[in-house]
Design goal:
The chain is of the alpha/beta class and 256 residues long. The protein contains 8 helices and 4 strands; from the N terminus they run αβαβααβαβααα.
Length: 256
């Protein structure tokens, strides 16, 4: 299932008609309670789960992405290790081209960092325009959670969706379920030193105004996060991802 663990005959056999799942993440701060590689961990998890469901294989993850604007991160915190848009787009295009040279024609890019999206789409567009019969799907987990599911979570937990963004309840719960040993849930209970509410904007300003920053990098609350909630979210997302892929690739589930 993992490309890096295969022998060349194994890969040659799978490449002809199998799905290639490409996990894409980032290295950036996710509050005081989640690891810097949270995005990559989430992408790896869903890529492996999809590979099992679809009979595909998982390429080595790309863990460096585009730098997320400070406003999305809740401020400027240590840990943003990024690459330029040109480097990132070229890397994705090169990997897609190499896969195609080996016969791969169905690629699912599983992304977990929002600022990667436009560059991934550009790479996929350019690649498919120049590669006969190739098809690439770019999908982020948060886009398939489902509106009703998110509304139900908000009502159940009392955490409004407007408060649930980067490193907040849903994302924190996912990482707590996927990689519990890497999280520090006790940090969620630490009271802020000032108790102020950060100013919210619908645009980006550089440098970020101090009154628009958070104290922890949680945007804006993760108090209700739990591994149990993360398991429910993971099951929901995995089911929706598989359904979307089967729809776009005309690949109905096999009857048993």
């Amino acid at each position: 299932m993992l490309l890096g663990d295969m022998t060349w005959p194994d890969f040659h056999h799978r490449a002809q008609d199998g799905y290639a799942l490409m996990p894409i993440g980032a290295v950036e701060p996710h509050g005081p309670h989640l690891p810097l590689s949270s995005d990559t961990m989430i992408s790896d998890y869903f890529a492996k789960r999809l590979a099992r469901a679809l009979g595909g294989f998982v390429t080595p993850s790309i863990g460096y992405g585009i730098a997320t604007p400070p406003y999305r991160l809740g401020g400027t915190f240590p840990g943003v290790i990024s690459v330029s848009g040109t480097t990132f787009t070229n890397l994705i295009q090169d990997v897609l081209s190499s896969l195609a040279d080996n016969g791969v024609r169905k690629v699912i890019i599983v992304n977990s960092a929002i600022d990667n999206t436009s560059f991934l789409c550009e790479a996929a567009r350019t690649f498919t325009e120049n590669t006969q019969d190739a098809r690439v799907m770019v999908v982020a987990w948060w886009d398939v959670v489902g509106e009703q599911f998110r509304d139900d979570l908000a009502a159940e937990t009392g955490t409004a969706r407007r408060d649930d963004h980067h490193a907040a309840m849903v994302e924190s719960s996912l990482v707590m379920h996927i990689a519990p040993d890497t999280t520090q849930p006790d940090q969620l209970t630490a009271a802020p030193s000032t108790g102020r509410e950060p100013r919210r904007m619908r645009y980006h300003v550089y440098p970020l105004p101090p009154d628009a920053t958070t104290e922890s990098g949680i945007v804006y609350t993760a108090d209700k996060a739990s591994a149990a909630l993360g398991e429910r979210i993971a099951d929901q997302v995995a089911g929706q991802l598989e359904a979307a892929i089967r729809l776009e690739f005309n690949d109905p589930p096999h009857s048993t």
